[in-house]
TrEMBL record:
Subcellular localization(s) per the UniProt record: Membrane
Species this protein is from: Paramicrosporidium saccamoebae
GO cellular component annotations of the record: membrane
Assigned keywords, A-Z: Membrane, Transmembrane, Transmembrane helix
Protein name: Major facilitator superfamily domain-containing protein
């Protein structure tokens, strides 16, 4: 089984099935079953700030106690339990403010535990690979899981209601836990620092703090990592605005059913898999920074397409090029960002660096995107014009990371 690297592939497949079982359809579910309007959901996502700190905590604990598998299994279980509690609808008949509070507690709690899932699995997989450059070929199985569960849940929700996605969440989580209990996890003993990490250590060493958080503090305040994180935040902002509000946009403005939207999203699958598979070759002819910039620019273009296209039904075909761009965006940033974070990390802080990357790209960016989206939709009203303005402004703001890329290349 090790010869075929089946464990990494199955782990990414099952983890994506678990994480994305509810991810796409949550805004629509909360509006229909909890009566929470779209702009309020935008504000609720601000609770993701807890996920940022959660990812750093889980990452550092996994390194400190060499407990990647235990923390990964425990956090994934807690994530599924807290997110699944939304299905029981306890408090769904209360006033809006209480409904929002209850959802924030469950959604925020799930986010804290869910923040461990991707960075810890990335580190486990990188340690188990004979050739780290083949990381993308393992990661692409997560894309297959995403495509499968979104399509399956779109069909299931149309036929059986939203309870179907919570059943999918439970089944996929159980599968992931079973796989991780069998995964031959390797310890990161005697890490070999790269040239970049040696330079980083020299530039930020200020007194030899040997506490649990001392190395993390030095990593997070170093110039190379700060520049990387700023670019990551801006790229994540574009991704999170579109990713959060496009499902609602498709349903409310373009009147698409959940199944049809799920099928439209599969346009991303082929370019995403191809980019993951051939990413090693692309990086060999450019660099990880260039690949990450390419991914970000495709996200900006995707936002511009949704912001500029007329909202008439005759333009529903824009979902295809929009989701093709999404595939390139996700694969390139995930692959390149993971490698950059792992390279910049000082020895012993690799998992924390990956957690910071995913925490900024997913959690902190979600906060900014949720608040920005909530303000725009609240001001303009929950209509087609509001969504267009939101996507247009996002595309314009998304051009700023290009400047940070140029600055970073100069340094």
């Amino acid at each position: 089984m090790d010869d075929l690297l089946l464990y990494p592939k199955l782990a990414y497949l099952s983890l994506s099935l678990s994480f994305y079982a509810t991810y796409v359809y949550t805004p629509n579910y909360l509006e229909e079953h909890w009566g929470i309007p779209t702009h309020s959901y935008g504000y609720i996502t601000a609770i993701c700030v807890l996920s940022l700190f959660g990812s750093l905590l889980w990452g550092r604990m996994a390194e400190r106690f060499d407990a990647h598998r235990a923390i990964l299994v425990g956090c994934t279980t807690a994530y599924a339990v807290l997110f699944g509690a939304l299905w029981f609808g306890i408090g769904a008949k209360e006033s809006l403010i209480w409904r929002v509070i209850i959802v924030c507690v469950l959604y925020g709690g799930a986010g804290v535990f869910g923040s461990a899932m991707t960075p810890l699995l990335d580190r486990v997989v990188l340690l188990s690979l004979p050739d780290p450059d083949t990381f993308g070929r393992q990661r692409l199985w997560g894309s297959l899981g995403h495509a499968l569960v979104v399509t399956l849940n779109g069909w299931g929700i149309e036929r059986f209601g939203y309870g179907f996605m919570f059943i999918a969440l439970a089944a996929s989580t159980a599968s992931f836990i079973a796989i991780m209990l069998c995964y031959p996890v390797k310890s990161a003993e005697q890490p070999r620092p790269s040239v970049e990490s040696i330079q980083l250590e020299k530039s930020v060493a200020v007194g030899g703090n040997s506490s649990m958080w001392g190395p993390v503090s030095r990593l997070l305040t170093s110039s190379p990592f700060v520049m990387f994180i700023i670019g990551t935040l801006m790229a994540g902002y574009v991704r999170c605005v579109v990713g959060t509000f496009v499902p609602v946009y498709f349903k409310k403005v373009r009147m698409m059913k959940d199944l049809h939207y799920g099928l439209a999203m599969q346009a991303r699958l082929i370019p995403e898999i191809l980019f993951f598979f051939y990413g090693k070759t692309v990086v060999a002819h450019t660099s990880n920074e260039t690949v990450m910039l390419i991914g970000h620019l495709t996200g900006v273009l995707r936002s511009a397409i949704y912001g500029l296209a007329p909202t008439t039904s005759s333009y529903s075909w824009i979902t295809v090029p929009g989701e093709v761009l999404k595939g390139i965006n996700h694969a390139s940033i995930t692959m390149a960002g993971t490698k950059i974070a792992n390279t910049l990390a000082t020895p012993g802080c690799e998992t924390t660096a990956l957690a910071a990357f995913h925490g900024i790209y997913g959690s902190l960016a979600m906060i900014v995107a949720g608040i920005a989206g909530g303000v725009v939709l609240d001001y303009f009203g929950d209509n087609s014009r509001a969504f267009q303005v939101l996507f247009q402004w996002t595309a314009i703001a998304g051009l700023l990371p290009v400047l940070f890329f140029i600055i970073r290349r100069h340094h």
